[in-house]
């Protein structure tokens, strides 16, 4: 159970809504609410926005495809024993 | 990246990478350990170990056998089995050897394995990954080392686990369910 109450998207101000739109586009999935991590990152857009840009830059296709990078992300998450 | 087979392959790479790193960083790199349990010296090995060392040199296109395998070769039978598993895990299959070495590099970075990071970085470059590609893997590793810790700190529940479709195919060589 999260140690914080995750707010619904409707509880966030306008700048955060932009982060949610980007998240929806990134995952190409119609979630009822933005993913928990998106809502966490939108809490402070001055942190979440540059962090998100760094992530998008790292995950963009380059020498490795997006799919290959998702696999790298999955093994890093696994090694970190992160179930999220 | 559809289907379970590639994820089984990735998991095998993660496992054997960690196994090699444990022995390399925890044993083979420590003079206090190797003073008590010296690695098998190249050129002084018994015939079965010489054949094993030859395979390893060929697989990695190196003149020298990495110390971790020379350390394991103190028990030739054990070393042969570990090597067979490593060779199988890292060989080209559904996933390329290039990607597998990149996964191993990410695992080694994440677990702070000095030996593994250097070894798999060398392999990535040897297999054609450029500096840009290396930086891509470092970036993904670093960003997801951030996300995972944020998620763990806040104890977030997974909310995307059900997105991927289930792979209903049987195990390799097996029979589909319901037949």
Task: Write up what this structure looks like.
The complex is a heterodimer of chains A (84) and B (179). Chain A has 4 helices and no strands. By secondary structure, chain A is mostly helical. The longest helix of chain A has 15 residues, at 45-59. The radius of gyration of chain A is 14 Å and the shape is globular. The mean pLDDT of chain A is 91. Chain B is mainly alpha-helical and 179 residues long. Chain B is 64% helix and 0% strand. Chain B contains 8 helices and no strands. Chain B has helices spanning 5-28, 31-36, 47-60, 67-72, 76-90, 97-110, 114-126, 131-153. In chain B, helix 6 packs antiparallel against helix 7 and helix 6 crosses helix 8.
Name the helicity range of chain B.
55-70%
Structural class, from helix and strand content of chain A? mainly alpha
**Radius of gyration of chain B from the CA trace?**
19 Å
Number of distinct beta strands of chain B: 0
Largest sheet descriptor of chain B = none
Strand fraction of chain B: under 5%
Rough shape of chain A?
globular
By secondary-structure content and strand pairing, the structural class of chain B works out as mainly alpha
Query: In angstroms, what separates the terminal alpha carbons of chain B?
Result: 27 Å
Helix proportion of chain A: 55-70%
* Average pLDDT score of chain A: 91
- pLDDT < 50 runs, ≥5 residues of chain A: none
- Number-wise, the strands of chain A total 0
Question: Averaged pLDDT of chain B, please?
Answer: 93
How much of the sequence lies in strands of chain A comes to: under 5%
The low-confidence runs of chain B, each spanning 5 or more residues with pLDDT under 50, are none
Number of DSSP helices of chain A?
Answer: 4
Shape assignment of chain B: globular
